[in-house]
Request: fold
Amino acid sequence: MQTLNSYAPEIIRIVIAVAGAAVVVFGNALIMGYMERKLAGHFQRRTGPMEVGYHGILQLIIDGIKLMSKQLVIPAKADKPLFMLAPIISFAPVFLPLLVIPFSDRIQAFDLDVGLLFVLAVASINVLAVLVGGWASNNKYSMFGAFRAVAQNVAYEIPMLISLLAIVFMTNTFSLRGIVEAQNVWFIVLQPVAFLIYLVCMVAETNRAPFDLAEAESELTAGFHTEYSGMSFSLFMMAEYTNMFIVSCIATVFFLGGTSGIPLPYFEYTGIIWFLLKVYFFMFFLVWIRWTYPRTRFDQLMNLCWKYLLPISLVNLLITVVVVKL
Amino acid sequence: MNVDVLEDERQHHFVLNMGPQHPSTHGVLRVLLKMEGEYVLDPQPVLGYVHRCHEKIGECKPARSFMPNTARMDYLGALIYNQGYAMLLERAAGIEVPKRAEYIRVITSELNRIQSHLLWYGAYLLDLGAFTPIMYAFDDREHILDALEDVCGSRLTYCYCRVGGVCKDIDDKFIERARAFIERLRGRFPMYENLINGNVIVQKRMKSVGNYTPELCARYGVTGPLLRATGVAYDLRKAEPYSVYSEFDFEVPTEQTGDAWAAFNVRYREIEQSLRIIEQALDKLPEGEVMADKVPKKLRLPQGDYNCSVEAPRGELSYYLVSDGSDVPYRIKVRTPSYSNLSVVPEVCKGMMIADVVTSMGALDLVIPEIDR
Reply:
């Protein structure tokens, strides 16, 4: 009895947290899918989806039904188990980072001491899915895409982590809540260089244009997901949108003060409004540059990382450490 | 021993089949790429997927009936192909074209050239991964198509020129539209320059991709903007002015570097020059008939062989016709620019990364139905 009492609230918390994460994942995929198509339309002087519902607001639901009802085509010589596994490897882990993100003071499932490391570790599983999917498709374009994705993600995780480490040195904590609480002044002011580096890495990490080398549809048709159709394709897409959400959350937590904003009633809950506004500002930014810039070339992308971002982020870290120690 | 070499090759290189269905081969071009990692060792274009025997068709029916076929070779430069063929027959039959018809041909051809360059501009940036410019370019292009539709009756595969003139006179509405378009496009140039030409990623992707020299171009017969990108100011409208081009004041844009960026700039600047020609032609447009008087119903070309070259959007277009004295040509041969331009690919793209192959093939501005006629 004693045991049950002590565990029951915890179990309920876990159920609520997982359900909440699922809501965020699917809700975000719907919002982003609609937002991306609508914004892309308006950037390109067209209207975007208009037919289904008011200004096409139900378009994504219809699309979801269509994708679910489509046949899953598996290429004849593909590695069938791995081919089916790849979208799952891509999609399953995206729930986990959401559990440690402090949406507001009271809306956070767990406050891990190593929150940042947990998020980055789980987020990097995605590249495994891309590699497996590209390899198992038995398609040369897919394989190219997969190889590029691996080289790119491994390269860009390093400056990303180092730029965030500068802030960890300032706050002495890996806990995301701790970092939010430590921001009297938003760190975008104190660490502008780290912010810019993070911004570039964020785009590269989510494989979005201008760094969408793994997809690169004008060179590699659709890169690693050339052979995927129906629901397995949409799992990849949902994972991409959730990854965008996660990196935007990290940017908000580290540089824009998390929930901080004009106080609202019940702020320990309503802080989520400010948080989501900042997150969707970053998401808008990601969509904006995708529909504006052309793609970089692969060697240029790697040069940018190894020759510029990594040294600059190291120097930034060094300066931060020296200043903090003084 | 030989088997070992083959086995070695099989393990280190692989062949990537780019096309015939591929987003950036724009049509049904197929390029076999022998790759080592990201690098292309040996690109080989494979042709023949849209071959429709146009030249043979031309040898089976009266010479003037070949006119619609010319539009279907290069669907982006249809009016210029029309004009070239009409000029060939007029030259052969000794028909004098009224001045107004010549002016109308120039105006519509230059509009057609701008339309072709705008489509290339958008599609090329699409090859580089920028989605939005093609929408802006199409937005402008639509105005040309609408205006031409009103006079020519179709939007893409025109059959507007006739032996001895053009089939329909242009009206005030068309002139008004053309003037409005010139103003509009000039107003859009700063936007294109800010959004695209000045973009550092665009420049980095294009600069020093492809190494064209005048010598290389001469060896393969490369003409058009690609040749002008190597510093040779060879444009048939200036070099041997046909029609009434000698009456207009325009420049031939050239660049020195001979890479994709130079070709890009040459094409971009040609749009402005075409606008200048249209403007002057509209100002000077003479009154009068648009068809020559005495064009015989049955056009018998005197025995002999005839040649006529015009400057198409992609380079030099030549028609060669052999007549045996009847109304059906004995032989028609078309020299289309993209065919020669494509032949440099194996030499120029050797050793490039796959992304650069896409960039340099985009700079060629290939229209596949014109390569496979």
Q: What stands out?
A: The mean pLDDT of chain B is 86. Residues 140 and 188 of chain B are 9 Å apart (CA to CA). The two ends of chain B are 43 Å apart (CA to CA).
